[in-house]
Design goal:
Blueprint lengths: L2 E5 L21 E5 L2 E4 H9 L12 H21 L9 H23 L8 H8 L4 E10 L2 H12 L4 H8 L7 E5 L6 H8 L12 E3 L3 E12 L5 H32 L3 E5 H25 L2 H4 L4 E3 L7 H4 L2 E5 L2 E4 H8 L4 E3 L9 H24 L6 H26 L10 H19 L4 E3 L1 H6 L36 E2 L2
Parallel strand pairs: 13-14
Antiparallel strand pairs: 1-8, 2-3, 2-13, 4-5, 4-7, 6-7, 8-10, 9-12, 10-11
Helix pairs in contact: 2-14, 3-13, 3-14, 4-8
Length: 495
């Protein structure tokens, strides 16, 4: 049985840390419903990170109250529904909730151990902010071979023209040129090369090593400046630059933290099992890809992450095959399949050529195992018990149980119409009266922070927000279609 290996430390390029979207500690509580809470941040995310229905789409006091009533109703439906919920007894559902909890733990760990510890020098912020309105026209080429990159760097330092060096290594006569702006460029090394100090037209920059994979050579061809006219615009740019610099520092801290977790762990694949799974998973991946491309235009698909829930055939001998080894533990295909129930496989790239699928699959399994070991460290530190982490899991669990209960209640009422097509009528005739009865039943267990509600403002722009390269990419559940009532004539005022 032959083995292939991949370093788990290599996979620290995860950093899909749109963790600012996840719930933070210390957010003001907007409402309490029994033992559940709705924070101000959760209210905003549930209203703005997914599509609101027409009756709650505007930013008026009435519609802001409808949003709160809907979120409170969701909690009430969950409290009623959990008494006879089949979902809560379903093992796959339990494992998905475990996975959502663990994803929230990892986000919290990043925020607590990296973002919270990041710091920047204000002079660096001022210097960078002075250049951050500039959009550079940059000619560039890259070299994967490190020894060739050293030789090319020497030629450029000796004064050989940039275009002449390019033509000596490229198979085209046309020099690639692109625009680079500070906020759009996410690679810290490229950003530092262009925005750390003033540059001259025609200047050849120092070579930039990109993720240890290739060396990038750049020449400044020119730039456009976006002038700032008001103090407010200058403060805004300063704040944007400071936030980006803090994020860069946090990424560096997090890479180091994850690297230390993974430093003694190498993933060894058993070749026979690996090749069989490449075939099985590849077939499912390309079927899913074809389905998605049938449903979405190419531009939308290009920005999507590809999550694959692997469905293996019922072959007991296949499941017992050893798939990979980390340190002294051997993981069978069955162990791997069970792990996927709480952490769907996520590929780093979309539209993978078939010739590259085995390598992408290897990286996806490595990323999954990296998250597994980060989870172990997070559990040791008790991050699973952090209220913000628990609330993230509870938000999804309550939303799903509430939908299950809504379906059960409508069936018990003899309702057969399609909710999406007859929303207004079903709300007025069926759901609003039922929610009113729950508000009366649970009124003593409900508290509302009226002062915080009056401060809130919502955007009218439809958004659908996702994490990038996360096993559970959707940031919040769908908006709860449970009530269109705006009256807050129940509960008590929060003290």
């Amino acid at each position: 049985m032959s083995l292939k290996q991949v370093s788990l430390a290599f996979c620290t390029a995860w950093l899909a840390v749109l963790a600012g979207c996840s719930q933070k500690s210390g957010e003001p509580v907007l409402a309490r419903v029994g033992d559940r809470t709705i924070t101000v941040g959760e209210y905003i995310r549930r209203a703005e990170y997914t599509i609101r229905p027409p009756y709650a789409k505007l930013n008026t006091p009435v519609q802001r109250s409808i949003v709160l009533n809907s979120l409170i109703a969701e909690k009430l439906f969950a409290m009623e529904g959990e008494k006879e919920s089949r979902l809560l007894k379903n093992e796959r559902f339990q494992l998905e909730m475990k996975g959502r909890l663990e994803q929230a733990m990892r986000f919290y760990m990043y925020q607590h151990e990296a973002l919270a510890r990041a710091d920047v020098d204000e002079e660096d912020v001022k210097r960078t902010a002075a250049l951050a309105g500039r959009t550079y026209d940059v000619a560039y080429f890259s070299i994967p071979d490190s020894s060739a990159a050293v030789m090319i760097g020497g030629q450029l330092r000796a004064g050989v023209p940039f275009e002449e060096v390019f033509r000596s290594v490229a198979d085209t006569m046309r020099m690639p040129v692109r625009e680079v702006s500070y906020l759009d460029e996410k690679h810290s090394a490229i950003r530092a090369a262009l925005f750390s100090g003033p540059l001259a037209k025609g200047q050849v920059l120092q070579p930039v090593n990109v993720d240890g994979e290739y060396t990038l050579f750049m020449q400044v061809r020119g730039w456009k400046d976006q002038p700032l006219l008001t103090d407010g615009e200058m403060r805004g740019r300063h704040d944007d630059v400071r936030e980006e610099m803090l994020r860069e520092r946090a990424v560096g801290i997090w890479e180091d933290r994850v690297g230390r977790i993974m430093e003694d762990k190498t993933l060894y694949f058993y070749t026979d099992a690996f090749m069989q799974l490449v075939q099985l998973v590849g077939d499912q991946y390309y079927r899913n890809l074809a389905d998605i491309q049938d449903s979405f235009n190419r531009a939308f698909w290009s920005d999507r992450d590809m999550e694959v829930n692997v469905a293996l055939p019922g072959d007991a001998s296949l499941r017992q095959m050893p798939f990979f080894r980390v340190k002294d533990k051997v993981w069978t295909i069955a162990d791997f399949e069970r792990l996927l129930l709480s952490h769907p496989l996520v590929f780093r790239n979309t539209r993978i050529p078939k010739s590259e699928f085995a390598d992408e699959f290897r990286l996806a399994v490595g990323d999954l195992m990296r998250d597994h070991f980060i989870n172990e460290e997070a559990y040791k530190r008790g991050y699973d018990r952090i209220p913000a982490v628990q609330n993230q899991k509870r938000m999804f669990q309550d939303a799903m149980v509430a939908v299950e209960h809504r379906q059960r209640i409508l069936q018990s009422m003899g309702e057969t119409r399609d909710l999406s097509k007859h929303m207004d009528a079903i709300l007025k005739q069926r759901l609003n009266p039922y929610v009113d009865s729950l508000q009366t039943q649970y009124s003593r267990k409900i508290e509302i922070n009226v002062e915080e509600l009056e401060k809130l403002q919502l955007t009218r722009i439809d958004l659908f927000v996702k994490y990038k390269q996360a096993p559970y990419p959707v940031v919040v559940p769908d908006f709860p279609i449970l009530t269109s009532d705006y009256s807050l004539d129940y509960g008590k005022k929060m003290k």
